[in-house]
Records
---
Amino acid sequence: MPYVSLNPATGEVMQTFPSWNKQQSDNALENARRAQAAWFQAGFAQRAKAMSRVAQNLLANRDDYAALITQEMGKPLREAHVEVEKSALACDYYARHGADFLTDEPVETDASRSYVVYRPLGTILAVMPWNFPFWQVFRAAAPALTAGNAMVLKHSSNVPRCALAIEAVFRAAGLPDHLFTTLMIETGQVAAVIADPRIHAVTFTGSELAGRLVAAEAGRNLKKCVLELGGSDPFIVLCDADLDDACTQAVNSRYLNAGQSCIAAKRFILVPEIANEFVLRLKQKVATLKLGDPMKKSTRIGPMARLDLRDELHRQVTDSIAQGALPILGCAPAAGKGAYYSPSILDHVTPKARAYHEELFGPVAIVIRAKNERDAIKIANDTRFGLGSSLWSRDAVRAEKLSREIEAGCCFVNGMVKSDPRLPFGGIKNSGFGRELSYHGIHEFVNIKTVWVKQTSAPDPQLQPTANHQGPECKSRKSRAKKLS
């Protein structure tokens, strides 16, 4: 099956690419292996300079990359610009801070000298989704490449032009040829790539079902993996919340990228005192969102990425209505060409409805009415997912205390959930495991290696080893944290 680049706003096929055979895949893995060895030996300073050039390239060409994202998966153009800029931010962040994250770390033991070193694993396979076709790749690639690894990318089949553009970004910045390679392989070939001994770890972002398959294959072959899967993030509004602010951020969080975000607010959990007022304000704001051509700056909501995704979303909505949910806005595909779905709200969602238990990956907000504050926390945790969460209250101290009870990889108090290179990102439960970003993310794909040395006699000064050319001298994690704060 060829890769097909199709504009979801018009249905136009823009370009097709043939899938690779096994020999082409094998060649790419061998070339990556060779490139990785040279990349690591070049030393951190050279890697950091190269990653800085990647960031500069992204910013210099942001208009072209943003247009490509919009054409290939339907993201409104202004959101696509932000995605490119955020990708550059991640590259710049690791270029500036990677040395601190990878510095040898001394540990006091019974040895004359003992410490921890961080060395790359080798070649990382990244299996990535279509919804943030640049950001998802760069947030994995920036730390992995900075640490000295190579990366091969199996991108989603509906964004092949984005995948090849990302490869070209790294090549234009002067990284070694083949260090980052897009594999134009089919889904059925992924298992063989995971099993290949030239692959040392896997990072995957996507659906829960696909994540289980990737994890099983990685486990069967004893390969490290990081999984960032689906989410059904709770957005808890307490009785003392600033409703204007909460409603504004609710709309931003739920309808960004036509609702196609793992960390979008998906379950609006409301206490009785503010429920009716919040729903009224939410409906008023959502009704004003402009649905249309994603290339126009005035458009707030573009098409969904594919027609089959829109059809599945609508089945979830209609089933939930049949199971008792109340449609108060939209809840139907938009008329005309393209994979458009009307901005929608389902109220009075209960555990009887699909929408209560499943992730709705599109522009549909679901409202769940809690009995009280304690019930709101209980509902928030009544899910198999655990990616992001947010909590809204004017009493930030009390809200912060409650945030510790929410079962998720992060909780934002009076703020929209977002990923940030400075903070670890990932989930628990069926939302996956492992972390991306921050120093946690760069440590996922390195060998955390102990070195223990006992000095048995006075050393010969002429035989002393030279300073480690891969990083600065040893320093404690505490001193690193102080430097980065």
---
Amino acid sequence: MTASCGAEPLHLQVNGQARSLEGVPREATLLHVLRNDLGLNGPKYGCGLGQCGACTVHVDGVAARACVIPAHGVAHRAVTTLEGLGARGSWHPVQAAFEDAQAAQCGYCLNGMVMQAAALLARDPQASEARIRAELSGNLCRCGTHIEILDAVQRAAVRMRAGAMP
């Protein structure tokens, strides 16, 4: 755990579980706490500036960049990471579609793409290809699997419209 003299306890709701951490400095980012203190490695450190999307999580159901959010700023709010979205055997429709479409290559962008897509489809399961492209445009993929990623999100949209909800 991160140590700091006089830091107040941090109470988070992560993946449906109440978590309390002692000694988390006020300046600690949500990404730092999730990865280093809670051992949740779905969100990745990419740019550290909130521009690449690798660290995307959901805060109260909204996609957010964990690398630029102060951990204390989301105290008592619902935080969902890739690990909380679904698990093998009970994948979220977006995760299942990414697996079916073989939309991962190196996997570094995968967390952000899945989390961004899941937030979009929760709001708009009728999302058009243009809307999906616009929504994912802030998530960087350096491997060139953009076509497979787009296919996966479209597959997930079909599944969610058909009632395959998480």
---
Amino acid sequence: MSKSKFVIDKLAKLFEQGLVSYKDLSDEILNILRSKRDEIIFKMKITSKEETEVQNRRIENLEKKLEKIEKSIKVKSKRGKKL
């Protein structure tokens, strides 16, 4: 009986605080989870999303340049064999 009363009291406090709708409650939970995620990322010193995107673009550009260089080397080697 005391455990159910405890749960009911907690729910009553939520209603009193204005967290009546499901959306408000879910928004509050998401905010808590985001802050915890940010804390973990900060502790792990992981790059941000923007930094990761910039690094991905740089890698793609380098891969394209490498492919061009490899193609030019193949073309030069084929020309040498034909002569």
---
Amino acid sequence: MTPAHASLVLVAICIVAAWQVGVIPVSAIQMAVGPALVPAGIVAMLSIVAVFYSYGAWRGRQPDESQAPGQTALAGSQWRMASLLSGGMVFVVMVSFAGFVLPATLCGMLIARAFDAPLNLKSALICGSVSSSFWILFSKVLGIGIGPATPFGF
């Protein structure tokens, strides 16, 4: 993949992320700091970085390692990237009908798989406890409406 192609992928990811921040529901109470503030700030910063990278890529200032002689991609790099991106897509697609915890657990497992973690019971328990902790923190402690933990309304 050339830097120009990578920059297009980065911009596309930023557009999807901005869309996701835009669908975060507004809090029922009027707060100075709403639930979309931090995600919007992160997406804005990443978008700025993507724009600078894209500018450098289109001007030919980013190193193009796809054309380097004698170099090949790391073994399994395409599967790692597919696992990483599919983790995010699983969460985005499933969160509206399956609650928060199950999609976040599957997302975490697929992201961990991209970094060579096995897909087993231990991985499921770790990712499930992390996603449950995040749901409790945001939904119950902070009162941010991120939806039910399960599709059964818990």
